[in-house]
Amino acid sequence: MFFEILKAILMGVVEGITEWLPISSTGHMILVEQLIKFNASEEFMSMFRVVIQLGAILAVVVLFWNKLWPFGLRHGRVTSKPEVWQLWFKVVAATLPVLVISPLDDWFEARFYNYITVAAMLILYGILFIVVENRRTAPHVARLEQITYKEAFLIGVWQMLAIIPGTSRSGATIVGGLLLGLSRACVAEFTFYLAIPVMAGASLLKVVKFALSGVAITGTEIAVLVVGCAVAFVVSLAAIRFLMDYVKRHNFKFFGLYRIVLGLVVLAVAAISAIA
């Protein structure tokens, strides 16, 4: 059990970093899973890869609680915050496209969760980041309240593309937001909020599917899941703070270059595995 917990810690660290930085958590998970193998059923691992995101979501809620909670106290009375409700309505607008394509999630995972697809998406979006930044003009949306419902919906359309493994949910939404004229800090923060309903819904669906599969969960697997989520939460706190500070002074070209290099590494690992 001790070694399983160590593996869960490593997976939590990888999830906490890669979920928020636009570098593809799937690409990193593929590499990590080449190094470590859990003593668990495939049904549990399929659920674990998604549910571990709950720790990452909790980090967003904790860090941005004042911006996300739509109620407050004034003179001892509960008041509503219209600007927060407007933000949530825009998050819903951006989530609608994902609801349309989400039934195909298992189909895409079964057919495209492989080295070639992941590497191709890593490299493609890496190039996109560099091209978008090179052609970027002054943003016309610098604050969340300036985002229109149309822009929120279009960012949601970009988020749909993350169903292809290796794309990166944050990577797709950030590229889409930049193309729509959002500032780097604005699109990064909006991307964090979009993750809450999308990742929570995906986690709930995976838990239900696991429960219906009839596969029993062991005590070790429960411990692995809890530790993975807890580590992902702690690491996500640092990763989110880092990204919000980073985009105030830098562009996304570094992440583009990183994705291209990682894509080439994934291809190299695939070639070595094929030879072996």
Automatic annotation (TrEMBL):
What's the protein's topology in the membrane? Multi-pass membrane protein
What function is annotated for this protein?
A: Catalyzes the dephosphorylation of undecaprenyl diphosphate (UPP). Confers resistance to bacitracin.
Q: What are the GO MF terms of this UniProt record? A: undecaprenyl-diphosphatase activity
Q: What species is given as this protein's source?
A: Faecalibacterium hattorii
The alphabetical list of record keywords is: Antibiotic resistance, Cell membrane, Cell shape, Cell wall biogenesis/degradation, Hydrolase, Membrane, Peptidoglycan synthesis, Transmembrane, Transmembrane helix
Query: What is the protein name given in its UniProt record?
Result: Undecaprenyl-diphosphatase
Where can this protein be found? Answer: Cell membrane
Q: Give the encoding gene's name.
A: uppP
Reaction catalysed?
di-trans,octa-cis-undecaprenyl diphosphate + H2O = di-trans,octa-cis-undecaprenyl phosphate + phosphate + H(+)
Which residues are listed as membrane-spanning? Answer: 47-65, 85-105, 112-132, 152-180, 192-216, 222-244, 256-275
